[in-house]
Amino acid sequence: MTDSVETARTAETGEAAETDRTGSAPAAHRPLAGQKALVTGGSSGIGQAVAIGLAAAGAAVAVNYHGDEDDAAGAVVETIRRDGGEAIAVQADVSDEAAVVAMFAETTSAFGRLDILVANAGIQRDAAIANMTLEEWQAVIGTNLTGQFLCVREAIRCYLAQGVAPLSRARGKIICMSSVHELIPWAGHVNYAASKGGIAQLVKTAAQEVAAQQIRVNGIAPGAIKTGINEQAWSSPEALDKLLKLIPYGRIGEPGDIARTAVWLASDDADYVTGTTIFVDGGMSLYPAFRDNG
Ligand code: BGC
């Protein structure tokens, strides 16, 4: 397949950056103390930083992994425990309904309840439209969009069944990991961009539907964050130079940039925030090509 760019099946992801990989909150700042969280695709990249960041903010965290990344998920769990936090690893393919139902049951039986879902698991399978196979389309829509629907649905069921949260003003919090590509078209990635465009309406519609039950639903739209999923875009000086032309703020993002946003959105500091997607992108969505054009 000539125009197809193969990318590994990684959860939004891969190696985190050398610095700022945890997004840890300062020691005394534990706005999520006692709360219980589930992070899908938590074994690497953005999900790993979010899991560690939520734990540093006081939450017990279930770290979801898909298939054979149990070592990586175990390492995240170990990191959290070494720092005095509570964590478990939970396996599930988020595109599989029965597996998602079982993952929520496992998480709530280990923790007693759930307060925070970060629906983060995502993949890329890039190809020009003319060359894209149905399998490549369905794989990305299945994990990125159907997977988020299933997790959002199970979290809402869980929040409604367990009643009000003792440690938070909201009954439950949901954060969906989107992308700047919920807004910016992306040639060669139609399955990915369509999945993220779908997440934009999943967030708003779910938020509108469950606000009266005190459930908050928000999104985060990361720009170019230094992880394994986009390694080819930052690993050589030439590629990085090209990428930085798209980022007015002048640096590539770090997983910690996203983790700190997730901690804030999950906390009572954001209690009046629902149905919003926060772009954490160094200005990538500001159409930088128009600075001296148009
Ligand atoms: C993608 C990355 C890409 C970034 C900016 C993200 O959603 O996963 O591969 O670098 O968007 O284009």
Please give a structural write-up:
The chain is of the alpha/beta class. It has a single domain, classed as NAD(P)-binding Rossmann-like Domain (Rossmann fold, 3-Layer(aba) Sandwich), CATH 3.40.50.720. 37% of the residues lie in helices and 13% in strands. It is built from seven helices and seven strands, in the order βαβαβαβαβαβααβ. The protein has helices spanning 45-56, 70-82, 97-111, 134-162, 190-210, 237-244, 255-266; strands spanning 36-39, 60-65, 87-91, 116-119, 172-177, 215-222, 277-280. A seven-stranded parallel sheet has the order 3-2-1-4-5-6-7, sandwiched between helices. Strand 2, helix 2 and strand 3 form a beta-alpha-beta unit. The radius of gyration is 18 Å and the shape is globular. It starts with 35 loop residues before the first strand and ends in a 14-residue tail after the last strand. Residues 1-21 have low confidence and may be disordered. It binds beta-D-glucopyranose.
Can you tell me the residue ranges where pLDDT is under 50 for at least 5 consecutive residues? 1-21
| Main sheet overview | 7 strands, parallel
The total tally of domains equals 1
- CATH-level-2 architecture: 3-Layer(aba) Sandwich
CATH homologous superfamily (4th level) name? NAD(P)-binding Rossmann-like Domain
Give average pLDDT, whole number. 92
Tell me the strand percentage band: 5-15%
The neighbouring-strand order within the major sheet is 3-2-1-4-5-6-7
**End-to-end Cα distance:** 36 Å
Tally of DSSP helical segments: 7
From the helix content, strand content and strand pairing, which structural class follows?
alpha/beta
